[in-house]
Write a structure and sequence with these properties.
Length: 418
């Protein structure tokens, strides 16, 4: 079967008015599925361009991690001409994606009610930290704050220990995934009705949605669940075990699997032990069983245990760090990490959206953009004349990346923010 080189969202135009992670991460996925994504940045750029500690010649590796395949136009949205350009872009868009604090885009003239009058078919997705709730709406909120408020830190870490931040931005990432699905759903509904609509999401609601089994525990017991370290809250054994040279994650997801597990570790008598015969008993006696199993696993290196468990189809996996993961034969085979040509970073590895279609292609459309890299091309496509463009640059209404502006006197970025 021949897979078309077009993505399922080819022909969809997305305007991203956002910074940091959640909305740009969602737009990154839309781009990989074929959408044309134009990122509107202030003259100083997306805030993450100047954040963190990993840079090369002024370019941020953090920004590059989730902004590939986009075009960048740099505008002063507080200037009427800059705002006019942004509104022109939204007039011809299918999707607008923004994650500023509630009310910010409305004040700028880029809110949903204003834009829908220009473009009735527009799908407009707003993402905030806490929604529109009085007392919370205008509070600054980012992933670590929402992890703390959203219950994740209370159930992460060792039992009785201090609250621990999850090592990846789960509030941002999870909300980006939901936004991705919500936008695709709204585009599908527009095909049926011809009408656009507004989507509203917030990080704290996503964290409630993420509670999953922890919510079930709370409802059943009436008590807030606590941190369990690497152990599963409801299945024993299902945890990280120290081996002779590292760590192994392994478990028995049923009583039948427990019997196979015991055979594999050379302790078949544990399967019928009166304290461990059923999962309910193992949960009750997890502390003594865990200590016993730790002693068993410490006798062999991780790779030996993996070979033993693989032969018997026991639930297991080595605990990899990021380097081990991305360089594993598993991930190389999946082809998720591709290299793109970047003007500063050279051959830059980036992560493709992990979706595979039978009939269409998901692919990285290009490198992360430099600030204002596509300003001139976008303005020309909007019908702005060369004299108009030169004037906009001179008045610092727009910023165009040096080297892309021909004979224009390109201005360095200012300090305005949306």
């Amino acid at each position: 079967m021949i897979i078309t080189t077009m993505g399922p969202l080819t022909g969809v135009k997305v305007i991203e008015i956002a910074h940091w992670l959640v909305a740009p991460y969602c737009a990154n996925m839309l781009s990989d599925l074929g959408a044309e994504v134009i990122k509107i940045e202030p003259l100083s750029g997306d805030q993450v361009r100047s954040s963190g500690s990993y840079f090369k010649n002024g370019e941020s590796y953090l920004f590059a991690a989730y902004n590939h395949g986009k075009q960048s136009i740099s505008l002063n949205l507080k200037d009427p001409d800059g705002l006019g350009i942004a509104r022109d872009l939204c007039r011809g868009a299918d999707v607008v994606l923004e994650n500023y604090r509630p009310g910010t885009c409305e004040r700028l003239g880029l809110g949903y009610e204003s834009l829908r009058r220009l473009n009735p078919g527009l799908v407009y997705c707003s993402i905030s930290a806490f929604g529109d709730t009085p007392g919370y709406a205008h509070r600054p909120g980012m992933d670590p704050i929402v992890q703390g408020m959203g219950g994740a830190m209370s159930v992460t870490g060792e039992p009785g220990g201090k609250p621990v931040l999850v090592g990846i931005p789960v509030a941002d990432n999870s909300t980006a995934y939901i936004a991705f699905g919500a936008i695709c759903g709204a585009l599908l509904e527009r095909e049926r009705t011809g009408k656009g609509q507004r989507i509203q999401l917030n990080l704290i609601d996503t964290m409630v949605f993420n509670l999953s089994t922890r919510f079930g525990q709370y409802i059943a017991s009436g008590k807030p669940p606590s941190a369990m370290g690497s152990q599963h809250a409801e299945v024993v054994p299902y945890q990280a075990f120290p081996t002779a040279n590292g760590w192994l994650m392994a478990g028995a997801q049923s009583d039948r699997a427990w019997a196979v597990f015991c055979e594999a570790i050379g302790r078949p008598e544990l399967a019928s032990h009166p304290d461990y015969e059923t999962n309910r008993l193992r949960v009750k006696n997890r502390e003594t069983l865990s200590g016993l199993l730790n002693g068993v696993f410490a006798q062999k290196p991780t790779e030996d245990w993996c070979a033993i468990f693989a032969e018997r189809n026991v639930l297991h996996g080595p605990i990899w760090n990021v380097e081990e993961l991305v360089n594993s034969d598993l991930i190389r085979e999946h082809g998720l990490i591709e290299k793109v040509d970047h003007a500063v970073f050279g051959k830059l590895p980036v992560i493709r959206t992990p979706i595979a279609y039978s009939e269409s292609e998901v692919k990285i459309q290009g490198p992360p953009p430099l600030l204002g890299e596509h300003t001139l091309d976008i303005l020309r496509k909007l019908g702005r004349s060369e004299d108009e463009i030169s004037d906009l640059i001179a008045r610092k209404v727009v910023y165009a990346k040096p080297g892309q502006a021909g004979d224009y006197a390109v201005q360095v970025p200012g300090s305005d923010t949306a």
